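We emphasize that the prediction below concerns an isolated chain of 150 residues; any contacts that depend on oligomerization or on bound cofactors are therefore not represented. The input was used exactly as deposited, without trimming of termini.
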Amino acid sequence: MPYCTQSGSNAGDIAPAKISVDQLKQLTSEDGLSVVQSVVDAAIAEADSDIDSYAGRRYTVPFTTVPAKVKQLSVAISVYKLHEKRIQNLGEMPKSIRDMYDDAIGFLKDVAKGNAVIDGAVVPSDNIKRTGGTFHANDRIFSKDSMDNL
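Result of the prediction step, given as a token string:
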């Protein structure tokens, strides 16, 4: 299940939440007359994969119940991915889109490090913070004294 959708009236929708439907048409089709769903779906899948790669260090992914923050992140990254694919035709990346993407990735990096949390996300029971390795061994068999007698 994708973490965001193409259009609607929720925060987890690409249009009109972050870009207009007309912009979506320009970003997904050569003629700019219609939205090409497969292009939108590919951008969303790519964004969701990025989210899972960071969030998976702390949470069970993919999210079965998608937290609001994850929806927002998916929208931000998907919009960036759509622009990135068409940048040669549109000129330079809009600063607002780049900033939105940088903020989303920055947050995800903090999540992966344990410096930020995603409210409503499920933490797996085996997700124990590890501080380092331990080593256990049997008592020493050979000592300097036992080796001297050989």
